Amino acid sequence: MTDKKDDVYGDHISHKFNDELMDLKSEFLKMGGMVESQVERAIHALVENDGHLADEVRAGDKKVDRMEMDIDEEATLIIARRQPTARDLRLVISVIKMVADLERVGDEAKKIAKFAIKLSEEGQAPRGYVEVRHIGDHVLSMLRDALDAFARLDSEQALRIMKEDKRVDEEYQAATRSLLTFMMEDTRNISRCMSVMWVLRALERVGDHACNIAENVIFMVKGEDVRHTPVEEAEKVVGR
């Protein structure tokens, strides 16, 4: 649930300041939706052997980069004009950090699209697509939940995302072990299976960035930095 006692963003005497903060949140969520779509479409391009869709994903990365620069500029102007303090400053600083994570998610989508194009030209790999779909669904769910936690200032949901990151790591390791075993048994498919392994690595990184966003949500709401902190310690922070 949303931390109501801490949910004071956008509650200022200056309506203009309220509008600026709301616009910043809105643009961040818009970019989040964009990169989520990029990852989803890149996965679809890979598993459906759709090189044309993969090309569209790669081209869309420029728009993601542009959005990052625009949001950074907007946040910097708010700091310069309003000199925000306490919770407002945490919001603006967190957005700057989180938008960098979103841009990197866009980069991972671009990598997946690159391998989708490569495999559409070489022929699909004989293994790994079930794992790509499974881990892809998992990290996309984490990303959606992280954006939702940001929108609702929900530190408890953010904590749940941090816990999910370990599961994604375990799924990634199991998938790569399975592919490595297959490649050792049939060396003819090493090149194509390696492409799928790079895709799995990109998806694992998407999960890492979703976790980073969740950590920043906790910082926004609770005022404590839980990066590089065991989940057990983060639980104590959220429970306060």
Automatic annotation (TrEMBL):
<keyword id="KW-0813">Transport</keyword>
<dbReference type="InterPro" id="IPR026022">
    <property type="entry name" value="PhoU_dom"/>
</dbReference>
<dbReference type="GO" id="GO:0030643">
    <property type="term" value="P:intracellular phosphate ion homeostasis"/>
</dbReference>
<comment type="similarity">
    <text>Belongs to the PhoU family.</text>
</comment>
<feature type="domain" description="PhoU">
    <location>
        <begin position="29"/>
        <end position="115"/>
    </location>
</feature>
<feature type="domain" description="PhoU">
    <location>
        <begin position="132"/>
        <end position="217"/>
    </location>
</feature>
<dbReference type="GO" id="GO:0045936">
    <property type="term" value="P:negative regulation of phosphate metabolic process"/>
</dbReference>
<dbReference type="InterPro" id="IPR038078">
    <property type="entry name" value="PhoU-like_sf"/>
</dbReference>
<dbReference type="GO" id="GO:0006817">
    <property type="term" value="P:phosphate ion transport"/>
</dbReference>
<dbReference type="InterPro" id="IPR028366">
    <property type="entry name" value="PhoU"/>
</dbReference>
<keyword id="KW-0592">Phosphate transport</keyword>
<dbReference type="GO" id="GO:0005737">
    <property type="term" value="C:cytoplasm"/>
</dbReference>
<dbReference type="Pfam" id="PF01895">
    <property type="entry name" value="PhoU"/>
</dbReference>
<protein>
    <recommendedName>
        <fullName>Phosphate-specific transport system accessory protein PhoU</fullName>
    </recommendedName>
</protein>
<comment type="function">
    <text>Plays a role in the regulation of phosphate uptake.</text>
</comment>
<keyword id="KW-0963">Cytoplasm</keyword>
<comment type="subunit">
    <text>Homodimer.</text>
</comment>
